[in-house]
Automatic annotation (TrEMBL):
SMART domains to which the protein is assigned, alphabetical: S_TKc
The protein's name: Serine/threonine protein kinase
Domain Protein kinase: 148-415
MF terms (GO), sorted A to Z: ATP binding; protein serine/threonine kinase activity
Organism, as annotated: Chondrus crispus
Length: 458
């Protein structure tokens, strides 16, 4: 139903996904004054949210179910509610204002008055997302797995594609990692370990990506891993090992606060991630950074002896700790890999502020040798603070027993004040029922009764 959208060539679903990512806007204050705010659509699609750069200053939430008027005029978007609240937002362009109007128009009550440049949008009351499209392709033609409509690709991992999906059950967007030919591709055995999958589904922390479902297709030896959709994607693409534009030191500090808090939670649960890198740090609409991708994780409370312990080095070569490198010069690894997470986080910190990995070479095995033997050197540019350099040095000590502990990182002077948890950490507990229900069966539905194998369907 493209006629519902107030933008030519863009559907309502296209606009809604944009709203989840958020944007900067000027929020109207008293006496014709404005202040810059970050605005975003809540993941439950029920709220318009905003916050200031300054912590604790004008953070707000507007319930979309109470909206009675929604109007776009030039660059300004105005929202009024039944309880007398009125929010005025000025976007960067008129097109952006109309994008927000279009996305919100089908999320507010049908009786609300919605206008664009004084033109009433009547068609919105007949809006049906199943008759809409995403990126030019009708939703009705998309394939389903269980309750999830696979809208289209948003990325690619080491073992498969990542799809954006819409749940017909809770009406939320999710990211679905589709992994094919598990045995052939040598995918980690943890994928079929019900205890480990039960643990992942129990993880509950604001800086850990939530795991919703794991579905297995025995006929195709494939898995679908359904996780929280992180609308703003990776904090930094680290596929290139050098020559990347660095992030600001202040911006990296805020990222690190979130990651340290999330890693502290994982270690408290006796889980080592073992693949910390910028590509596995994702940002949601409100800017919160979360740790993702647990394919290399070790869960020490689940299995005392890891069947993968003698496999190839885990993680990504440029960010891997010396004790996990495949090298004759590698130091002895401790029984548990918590120190390796500190190294990988330090290497990620180095990458984000300098735009390159701390140790470079032409081949993977040369990188391993460099990590184990080369002295850490800081580039001349960009200039960073002495406190940051001190933190990186302590995190990138080659001998794991001498490396900074996570609590040392959390209270380092570079942060100003200790990285704090929002709530007291609690140990998770899994029941026999959690384990039994950890992995479901994938049931594919092909529109129009077309037949296809799993590879075609993704």
């Amino acid at each position: 139903m493209h006629d519902v959208s107030a933008l030519a060539g863009r559907s309502v679903l296209d606009c809604v996904v944009d709203l989840l990512r958020g944007t900067r806007a000027q929020k109207r204050k008293m006496l014709r004054r404005y202040g810059e705010r970050w605005i975003w659509l809540g993941e439950d699609l029920l709220s318009l949210n905003w916050k200031s750069k300054k912590r604790g200053v004008d953070q707000g939430r507007l319930n979309l179910t109470k909206v009675k008027k929604l109007r776009s005029q030039d660059r300004e978007l105005t929202v009024e509610t039944n309880d007398g609240r009125k929010v005025g937002l000025v976007l960067a362009t008129k097109e952006e204002s109309v994008t927000w109007l279009t996305g919100l128009s089908c999320l507010v009550p049908k009786k609300a008055k919605v206008t664009e440049s004084n033109k009433l949008l009547k068609e919105r009351i007949r809006y049906d997302p199943l008759r809409d499209s995403w990126r030019g392709r009708a939703v009705s033609t998309r394939k389903h797995v269980n309750e999830y409509i696979m809208l289209g690709g948003i990325g690619r991992g080491s073992f498969g594609k990542v799809k954006l999906a819409l749940s017909t059950a809770d009406k939320r967007f999710y990211a679905v990692k589709v992994i094919l030919n598990v045995k052939k591709n040598g995918v980690s055995e943890s994928m079929s370990n019900r205890e480990e999958q039960a643990v992942l589904r129990k993880l509950d922390h604001p800086n850990i990506v939530r795991h919703k479902d794991v579905l297995f297709d025995p006929d195709r030896d494939g898995y679908c891993v359904i996780v929280e959709y992180m609308a703003r994607g990776v904090v930094m693409d680290s596929s290139k090992l050098e020559g990347v534009k660095p992030l600001s030191e202040d911006g990296v500090r805020e990222i690190m606060r979130d990651v340290v808090a999330g890693l502290e939670y994982l270690h408290y649960q006796r889980i080592a991630h073992r693949d910390i890198k910028p590509d596995n740090l994702l940002r949601c609409g409100d800017g919160t950074v979360k740790i993702s991708d647990f394919g290399e994780a070790r869960m020490y409370d689940v299995s005392a002896e890891d069947p993968r312990a003698k496999a190839a080095a885990p993680g990504t070569p440029a960010f891997i700790a010396p004790e996990l490198c495949v090298s004759e010069r590698s130091p002895k690894a401790p029984p548990e890999s918590y120190a390796a997470d500190i190294w990988s986080l330090g290497a990620s910190l180095f990458y984000m502020v300098y735009g390159r990995a701390p140790f470079l070479a032409k081949s993977v095995f040369e990188i391993y040798d460099c990590i184990c033997t080369q002295q850490l050197r800081f580039p001349d540019q960009p200039k960073v603070s002495r406190k940051l350099k001190d933190l990186i040095k302590k995190m990138l000590i080659k001998e794991p027993k001498n490396r900074a502990k996570l609590q040392d990182v959390a209270k380092h002077a570079w942060f100003g004040e200790r990285v704090a948890q929002r709530e007291e950490l609690k140990k998770i507990r899994i029941t026999p029922a959690d384990v039994e229900n950890a992995i479901g069966k994938a049931s594919w539905k092909i529109p129009n009764d077309r037949t296809s194998d799993l590879a075609d369907s993704v």
